[in-house]
Amino acid sequence: MSKGYNIIIGDHDWTELKDSPKLVEYRIGNQRLILRYCPDYSARMKYKREQQVEKAKERIEKNTITIGGRGGRYIKMDNKDAQIDKEAISRDEKFNGLHGVWTSLKFASKEEIYQRYSELWEIEESFRVMKTDLGTRPAFHWNPNPCSFLYLLCDLCIGSVSPLLLLSKK
Asked: b/e per residue, 84-121, with b = 16+ CB within 10 A?
């Protein structure tokens, strides 16, 4: 096993969060790696891997693997023989429940960075609303005034449509 894996998988001083995930931070150069461990995510990853292994076994039994092609994530091809790749399974098991975020923010705590990352879905939802419900598309302007006006207009639209969408979902 390479040295990098030992650093990530080994013993840590995990920071416990209120909603049960745990955080640990590494500094590599001027970048920071914030790792989160979540038991629920670990169980979900284990379940998905078990499904993939079952599909791989079925493909091997039915002999539906093409020679020279990729057999699947957990299938090892040796000449004309296909078999379950137990090394790949054990390698993936070591990362169960881990999720990493790279950042260059220097002064935010690891808890703040994780919180900001977990709120990204709200920004993505706003862009989806702009593109689908409002039918907006990117506009290219070279002067600062039209850019500022367009930003203000989009912000006003989102501000007025978002509460209506929330009310309609209830």
From this structure: ebeebbeebeebbbbeebebeeeeeebeebbeeeeeee
